[in-house]
Amino acid sequence: MYPYIKLIATLFRAKNSRQMNLDEKSVLNCRAGLTDIDVFVELNNARHLTYMEFGRWDFAQRTGLLSIMRKNKWAFAVGGASVRYRRRIAFWKKFTVTTQVICHDGRWFYFLQETHIQDKICSSALIKAAFTSKQGLVPVTEVLAAYDKPTPNFDVPDWVNAWIDAESQRPWP
Q1: Which candidate in 10, 34, 56, 113 could, as Cys together with 52 as Cys, close a disulfide (CB 3.0–4.6 Å)?
Q2: What is the pTM of this model?
């Protein structure tokens, strides 16, 4: 079952946290609970992605993107992800989720999200996500115009371009 209570708590804490700009990195403090672990008594691989989703909600609330989304009746959709898992997060261990927008390609925003225990990285994901409306994807230029604050230059790194290219070659039914 989706952890709605954790999502509500995340949004409540984000609303009462320091506001951020789009070029900043959010840090979400978490703990691996009983409903997050698998048979190996560690954070389940799917829960890494769930906590990263919480990180994107925290980021959206703290940057003001969530209010823009509500005002324009937009939704937010993930279009792809590439994840690396490196270290286990054991039951009841505290960990952090960092979230930052690293670039966009005009259609999609690309988020770099990581889980950490202290200074050690446990997982890292490149997440492709976009705002959507009843007409389809909302162009990034429209989102940034609605943002109405100075926005950084989000050049697409070579490694992200390589991932985009690889994804475009992947067979799709």
Answers
A1: 113
A2: 0.94
Q: Rounded CA gap, 24 and 3, in Å? A: 26
The DSSP 8-state label assigned to residue 170 in this structure reads S
Helical packing angle, 45-63 and 65-72, nearest 10°: 80
Q: Is the Cα torsion angle 83, 60, 76, 30 positive or negative in sign?
A: positive
Residue length of the chain: 173
pLDDT in tens, 18-66: 999 999 999 999 999 999 999 999 999 999 999 999 999 999 999 999 9
Assigned token pair, 124: 């890292």
C-alpha 55/C-alpha 60 separation (Å) is 9
Owner of token pair 């976009």: 130
CA angle 114, 63, 151 (to 5 degrees): 95
What token pair was written down for 148?
């109405």
